[in-house]
């Protein structure tokens, strides 16, 4: 794999599409993990560690973008973001620890399950979706936000995700409008990625060269996705993403 221009280009493409998905629809951060799992010979810790390292910058950029557009200036959204982020400090390191206990085959099955569940959540979210309104309150009970945040951060630490992949569908299912859910998830992803990166770096599990190959296009994708989320109806894109994730799940399990 090392130095193969085609593989590197494909990894960069996974990063770009992942960045677009992160800020446009939420569940995009899994794509770098999938790309590294399928195209490199890295062990589970190397896949997850390298992938999660890319999400520090993308999370920070996404947070800045949603602060600029106003969602993270709204007090209700800020409170939810803080609740999600606080529990991530403990959840992400737990996920890193769990990764060290998983074999390559086990990681493949668990990743396939996570991808399938995410695809299903996106589909359910769209089936139940109601139009967002500026007058719709941004409210979520602290206990609910904490439970969602902890579960998401453990899974993110285990698989090398930033967090929006799971947190956005779950927050929307809990009644949060889409844009505040995307904004709060971006803020949480910075904490998840930072805590997870430290954990994987301690184990020497991060390929920093690959992190740059994937992470730089991912940053560009974050800005593209942010613009898409604000100006383009993305319902069909969400259905396509859900179908793609559910179709990929069996292949990922078999690939392991």
Task: Explain how this protein is built.
The protein has helices spanning 5-24, 30-39, 44-68, 75-100, 104-127, 142-159, 164-173, 178-202, 208-231, 235-255. It is mainly alpha-helical. It has one domain (5-255). α4 packs parallel to α8 (178-202), α6 packs across α8 and α7 packs antiparallel against α8. The longest helix has 26 residues, at 75-100. The model has no long low-confidence stretch (mean pLDDT 86).
Q: Tell me the β content.
A: under 5%
Determine the number of helices (DSSP H or I, runs of at least 4 residues).
Answer: 10
Q: What is the 3D shape?
A: globular
The major pleated sheet works out as: none
Radius of gyration: 16 Å
The count of DSSP E runs of length 2 or more, i.e. the number of strands, is 0
What distance lies between the first and last C-alpha atoms, to the nearest angstrom? 17 Å
Poorly predicted parts: none
Total tally of structural domains: 1
Which structural class do you get from the secondary structure elements?
A: mainly alpha
Helix content: over 70%
N-to-C SSE string, H for helix and E for strand = HHHHHHHHHH
Overall pLDDT level: 86
Subcellular location: Cell membrane; Membrane
Protein name: Probable membrane transporter protein
Keywords: Cell membrane, Membrane, Transmembrane, Transmembrane helix
InterPro entries: TM_pro_TauE-like (IPR002781), TSUP/Inactive_protease-like (IPR051598)
């Amino acid at each position: 794999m090392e130095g193969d221009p085609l593989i590197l280009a494909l990894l960069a493409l996974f990063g770009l599409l992942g960045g677009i998905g992160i800020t446009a629809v939420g569940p995009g951060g899994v794509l770098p993990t999938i790309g590294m799992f399928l195209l490199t010979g890295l062990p589970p810790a190397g896949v997850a560690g390298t992938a999660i390292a890319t999400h520090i910058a993308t999370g920070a950029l996404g947070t800045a973008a949603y602060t600029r557009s106003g969602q993270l200036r709204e007090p209700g959204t800020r409170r939810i973001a803080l609740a999600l982020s606080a529990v991530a400090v403990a959840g992400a390191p737990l996920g890193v620890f769990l990764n060290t206990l998983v074999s390559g085959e086990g990681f493949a099955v668990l990743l396939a399950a996570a991808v399938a569940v995410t695809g299903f959540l996106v589909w359910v979210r769209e089936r139940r979706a109601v139009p967002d309104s500026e007058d719709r309150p941004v409210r979520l009970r602290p206990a609910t936000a904490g439970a969602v945040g902890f579960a998401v951060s453990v899974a993110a630490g285990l698989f090398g995700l930033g967090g929006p992949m799971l947190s956005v569908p779950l927050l929307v299912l809990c009644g949060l409008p889409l844009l505040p859910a995307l904004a709060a998830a971006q803020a949480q992803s910075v904490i998840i990625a930072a805590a997870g990166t430290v954990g994987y770096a301690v184990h020497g599990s991060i390929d920093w060269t690959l992190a740059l190959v994937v992470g730089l296009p991912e940053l560009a994708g974050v800005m593209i996705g942010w613009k898409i989320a604000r100006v383009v109806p993305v319902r069909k894109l969400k259905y396509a993403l859900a179908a793609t994730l559910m179709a990929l799940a069996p292949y990922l399990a078999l690939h392991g």
